[in-house]
Each structure stands twice: as C-alpha cells, then as structure tokens.
Amino acid sequence: MGLRRRSRRKLAAYVVGATLVVAGAVSAPAALASQNGDGAAAGAGASGEQQDFADAAHESKVPESVLMAVAYQESRWDVHQGHNTSGGYGPMSLTDVTPSMVADGGAGAVGRSDLASLAADPSLHTLTAAAKLLSVPAQDVRTDRRSNIRAAAALLASYEKQLKGGTPADPAQWYAAVARYSGSSDQSAASGFADRVFATMKAGARRTTAQGQQLRLAPQPSLRGDTGGLSALHLKRTSSAGTDCPVRLDCRSAPAATTNYQVANRPADGMTIDYIVIHDTETSYQTAIDGFQNPATGDAANYVMRSSDGAVTQSVADKDIAFQAGNYWLNMHSVGIEHEGYAAHGATWYTQVQYENTAELVKYLAAKYHVKLDREHIIGHDNVPGPVDSLVSGMHWDPGPYWDWNQFMDLLGAPTDQGGHGVGPVGTAVTIAPDFASDQQTVEVCPADDPTGATTACTDRTAPSSTLYVRTAPSATAPLVSDPYVHADGSPGTDEINDWSATVSAGQQFVVAGRQGEWTAVWYGGQKVWFDNPGGVNTVRARGVRILTTSGGTAAPLYGEAYPDASEYPAGLAPDTAPAFGRYAFPAGQAYVATAQPAHRDDFYPANGTTRPTETYIPGAGTVYTIQYDHRLALVDSSAVTVG
C-alpha cells in the first residue's frame, strides 16, 4: 500500500481521500436526540448530507439507518472523487473503474492488452448501474453528493427486491442486500462487510466529515441482521484452514475481493516467486483488510501484519497474483506483506513483534519458493521499479526510511554487515550498511505525508534511519542527486521524506566508482554519486555478487517489466508491451550489481471462463538480470551485458 509521491498542492484532496477506507470502530454516542423508527437521526431540523440520506431513503424505501451505515463503512460519510485512484465515488463509494485506473495502481497493468477485461467486472461499475436505475447522468452520480446517495439507495433497493421481492421497513431484513453491496463474491468478505454495517447500526455513530457536515446515526442495541438470504447470493466459501503461514504465527484468513488479484497456480504453472515485497498500510490493520475486500480499491497484498501483536491475516493465496506492487510483472513473481503502520511514524509503528513475526513468515516463504535472501529479492515497496516512464515518479515510497533493514535482514540470517565494515577498491562491490541507531538523518515531513493528521505543517525531523543521501560531489554542501523522472526539470533531489530519488538503503549493493577522503562514490542511476563513508563505516565489502558491465561499448536499455517477444505469444493472445525506459540507461563504462542468474521474460493470462477456460503462462526465450540501479531495481537484457 503506502503513499505515492505527492505534490503539496494536492494536500487538500489527499486529506479528503485518506479517510475513504477507514472502517474501524464506530463511536457510540450517548443518547442521541429524537430518531425515526429504524434508528436514523430524526429528519426534524436535519440539513445537508443528513437530509440527503433521509430523502434518498424515503424515495427508494430503504431504511435510513441501513443507507447511512453502508455509507459510514464505505467512506465515513466523506465525499471523495475516485478514492485511491481506483474508482470509488462519493460517500457511497459507487464504483466506475476504467482501464487507466487498472494500469496505474496495485495491478500496475499498464501496457497489457487485457486492460479492458481487467476493468470489466460488474462489481467495478456499480455507479453506472445505479445511475441507470435513476435515469440520471453518471457524471452527476460521480460529482454530486445528493445524486450519489440517491443512486446508491436505488441500487440497494434493487438488490433487496431481487432477494425478497420488496423493500421491507425492518432494517434486519436487509443483511443480504448489504452483503451484495460489498461487491465481493466471497462469503467471508461479503458477510464481513455486512457484519460491520450492522455493527455500526447497533452501536450508532456520529461524526463531523472532512467537508464540515455533522451527521449522526442513533444506536439500535437490539438489532440483529437476518442472514437467511445469504444463500441466494451464491457466494464462494473460503476456509481459514487455507492460510499458509508458519505454525507459530497467529494467522487467519480474510479473502480479498476477486477483482484485486488474479487466480494462478504459482509456482506449479511455471511462474516463479522470486521476490518478497515489504509494505506499510498507511491505515489501521483492519482498515487495510477491509480495503482489500473492497473491489473499488484495486489493491490487495498476500498478507497483513498487525503492529501490536504481530498477528497475520492472509488476504490472497500465495499461488495467486496479488495486485500489490504497482508493477504487473513483479506482481507475477512476488508475495506482498503489508505492515500496519505509517511511514512518517515508522519507528513508533514497526514493533519488534512485527519484525520477528515477519522474519518468521519471510523465512518460511523464502524456503518454500526458493527466494534469495538478499536485498535484490527481499525488497521494500520503495524498491519496486516503475513499469513504464509515466509511472516512475509516482511509485510508492513505503515502508520508508524508518524500517530497520539491518535488524530485519539479521533476523532472516542474512545480515547486511556480514564481514565487517569497510570499502574496497574501485570496481569492487559494496553493501550499504549504516548502523540504524547512529545513522541520524534529517527529513522534511509535510501533512500530505502523514495520513494520521499529526503533522499539521511541514517539519524537519531527525531520527535513526536505514538510508543515506547521495550527492553530486564529495562534499556535504554538494547538491543531492537529481532523478530525471522525479525532478524532470533537472533540479536537485530534496530531503522530503517521500523523495526517494537521492537515497540508498541498507542492504543495497553498488559498484565503487571512486574514493576521496571520507567519501565513497558508486555508480547509481546512470551517474557517479557520492556519500559520506568515513573509514567505511557505512559499507561492507560485498561478496558473491555478479558485477555487470555493458557489452560492445554501448549503453544498454533498462526496463521495469520483462514480457516475451511478440512472436512468442500463442495465437489468439495479444502481446503485452513493456518498452525500455526513456530516461534511464545502463551507460557504457559503468557497472551494476546482480545477485542471481538472469530470469526468463514471461507473461500470464488468467482464465476468463469463455474464450480462455484455463490460465495461460507464456515463458519467453530471452532473459533479464535484476540489478540495483538506484533506490529501485531495474531489469537489463542479459544479452546486452557482460558478467565481470
């Protein structure tokens, strides 16, 4: 999950959207003033959004408490415009997901020929269905709060009529219709959403929204939902026994919405699992799980780790492709683990039990799928390459500088500082290994970086870190390195916490390009960059790595994904495309580190039930190396490089 790099000008929009999937504990008010028969706040004196709910409920004959509780669970009554860039609109989070939204997001499916089919699931287009029921323009339902609530009420009523033949006044009778509103085809996920909606009605809630609207829902303590209609939804059953975790971990199941992952059969189908991606949620634990069960989010990781006690929830089976890293090809070859926490407050959220239980899980997964225990394969979301030029600058930066990679890799039995600190001669490789506690780095944290709301103004923060800044010359006053995507105008990098473009992270490996006094230079992002390294305190000599240089004295193109050549696709399957980066290259005369043999270019098409009854895995003949290029990984064709 995590945060994309955001302009501060977008702060207001972000603050609104950040509350979208928050569906945690409701606040039960003391005695709320007069109420109508189904527990909603009384219409007398109501105005604004409160009145919109009352009017829409009356128009479609939906109990007002049901309508309000559904909205509370979807948005906490906030108005938002396409939350999480994934198409949930208005306080009712009606969905209208476009192919471009699937291209950019957890799926990272840009360049794929099946974008249209990925976005075609009816649960991703409840907004257009609801608009048709009211015969109003879909744009009104997207942008007008009142129309959004009216359309959602009409949609809920249509579900109830299909199930019960009418619209009963008793809120308890609407349980199955609410479950259907979740959009999930999984019984656990759909009933879980309905349970939270009914818990909201039972406890009551009140809140002042981000737009300043004061809303209230009176409690109905004796309310119990009638679950008898669930069978008519023909939902899938998923057992918690299907979780795949080490036996010592508290591991449970909460299946993600089927639109947020693809069914596969890794690695039996030939698609290897080569990476494990560490994320943070930027939300509470339960909110992240709820979000994965919401078709509108477009995202899901395989696992979520709770901060307080290290409990684990598995949302997507390892064999399936979770839409978690923002890069479809890397999703194909990775398992994602989300951590409850906030990158701007990492040290206070990343608990020891999280580290230890995550290490237990990663060791288990790495042994099962033969994942190499190094920082080219155990990576942060911030190390994932952008799939194409247009998405590089917006890639996520979690888990951020406060994730203690040294401790974590040590818990995996693959310490970053193995062999003792120091730096070898030019042309040899080093591992970045600053001591976390003493590596005090200053970053600027702004409100847009902190969805908790605790940061009210841009503030410098100095704290232990896993990162080092890299500069254009061996001097503390030299500019930070500029990235051609993050800083397209050529301006230097910054110390903003979300600016990953001029940092190296513990465990990454680079080739020494120079030494001057206390400073060490490495090849990084096509440039010679410098970092402070007195006595080699921040590095160890890397061993057992492959040092790559270009073949033929010419620059080699770099990629974010590695699909087969068009001629290698079976008849009837349109080839996917992954063009070379336009602003990144592997220049002649430079050298970069790879730690594993090259992997085959490949692709995957899921079964679609009609023209493709089974999934199709497409191995290509060409191979690519994964290299540490800058803060992120990159892929280079093996035919374009020589191993030193």
Automatic annotation (TrEMBL):
Swiss-Prot/TrEMBL keywords: Cell wall biogenesis/degradation, Hydrolase, Signal
SUPFAM superfamilies in the cross-refs: Lysozyme-like (SSF53955), N-acetylmuramoyl-L-alanine amidase-like (SSF55846)
Coiled coil residues, start to end: none
Pfam families for this protein: Amidase_2 (PF01510)
Signal peptide: 1-33
A Gene Ontology BP annotation from the UniProt entry: cell wall organization
InterPro entries xref list: Amidase/PGRP_sf, Amidase_domain, Lysozyme-like_dom_sf, NAMLAA_amidase_2
Domain of life: Bacteria
Region feature Disordered, mapped onto this chain: 37-56
CDD domains listed in its UniProt record: PGRP (cd06583)
Catalytically driven reaction(s): Hydrolyzes the link between N-acetylmuramoyl residues and L-amino acid residues in certain cell-wall glycopeptides
EC number: 3.5.1.28
Keyword Signal: yes
A molecular function (GO) term: N-acetylmuramoyl-L-alanine amidase activity
Domain N-acetylmuramoyl-L-alanine amidase positions: 261-400
Protein name: N-acetylmuramoyl-L-alanine amidase
